[in-house]
Amino acid sequence: MDNAIKNIIGRDISLSTLFEENRQTIEDSSSKVLNNLREQALEAFLKLGIPSNKVENYKYTNLQPYFSGDFSFSLNAPDFTGRMEDIFSCDVETLDSFTIFIVNGWYYSNNGSALLPEGVRVGSLAALAKEDPSFVEKYYGKNAPWLSDGLVALNTMFARDGFYIHIPKGVVVEKPIQVVNILLSEEPLMTNQRNLIVLEENSEARVLVCDHTLSSDRFVVNNVTEGFVAPNARLDYYNLQNQHNATTQVAGLYVDQKENSYVKTNNLTLHTGVGRNNIVLKLLGKHAEGHAYGLYLLDKNQHVDNFSFIDHAVPECFSDELFKGVLDDHATAAFTGKIMVRPDAQKTNAYQTNNNLLLTRDAKINSRPQLEIYADDVKCSHGATVGQLDEEAMFYLRSRGINKDEATILLMYAFAYEVIEKIKMDPLREQIRSLVEKRFRGELDKCHSCVVCGQKGTGNTSCL
Question: Which of 118, 139, 148, 281 has the most crowded CB, counting CB atoms within 10 A?
Fold first, then answer.
């Protein structure tokens, strides 16, 4: 990889030293609006470091070991001149979308054949920060907790590029906007991608973010996405995670919602090594609705930690949250969901559920649904369940001539479907249904979409 920073990282301080040693190069090729926050972010990172499980919000996931080791950091966009379509085929083949490709955290290209409505802007955050700095400055760093979370501080120190989506007032984007994040390297790599989504008044957009690894090296991914949804706007945000077991990914989504806005997020973890998803929805205007859904399917020694915080800051808002997990082998997971109802947020309706299915004695889940309520005129509930396959349902299926393996798959799929049905894009929902079924059958692996492996689903770990 050209122009890469290489360093043996053994402690948090090594990351800060690495930044300071290369700061001039980073800032010279970046924009003022991104550079303005780097010094404060460095100071915050020196105080906070990479979170360990001693940090309350990271109680069940110690990320420090995964951010140590021998990594490269790309100072410039990858030196790749081919067509991304030649090495990658989207799992959601029937989805008619405007597609953006991001390679190792850098904006690469889009399929210009799919035209967006007039006024809609989609592209490279780095380019936008130079071309329209006042627009980026209005939003950059305004809701992501870069002064209180060490990982967001780290991202703000190193962030160079990512994608942005800007939907102007009154525009409804009918076609989904698909962002394909690709990791591709011949050596271990750490990326710090920064993204921005802005929906103005009375606008609508559906965004599908797909995370894929196309080579077998170790990756550490630290992504931050800031979203701003204006009055009467609607954002549907889907994140499909399908990465190999040597990937550690932290994905932070932080969204501010104004009055009468609607936001739905759906995190679908089909395959990963270690994953941490931070989902924060701030309901800042009356009658705002926030929906957070998630499905995680884990086996072997995989681990996923889903953290959500839904902040009811004003009266008369609604939130609904449902996360489900299926864990096999020695897989582990954690769910921490916090609903905050502030003193003035009367007539709040907030609901939260976490259900988990453990297929072995060695699979483990830590679930912490939380309500913090400071108003009295509210309707709120939360709950969590952990269980095994229903023996009566299994007996019923077996008595109808269905073998044990097929009956197990049917029961697992029935358990997961409640989250899948929340997907309102028909082609995406049907493809996710198919991918989930393949995952349960053991047919889905990290090379499922890699064209150069020769055929889909070969599991060839030597690709690229």
Answer: 281
**Closest listed residue to residue 57, CA positions, set 217, 236, 278, 224:** 278
Whether 368 has a pLDDT exceeding 60, the answer reads yes
User: Is the pTM for the entire model greater than 0.90?
Assistant: yes
Say whether pLDDT at 464 is over 50.
no
Per-residue model confidence as pLDDT tens digits over 168-193: 999 999 999 999 999 988 899 999 99
Domain boundaries defined on the chain? 35-66+81-453
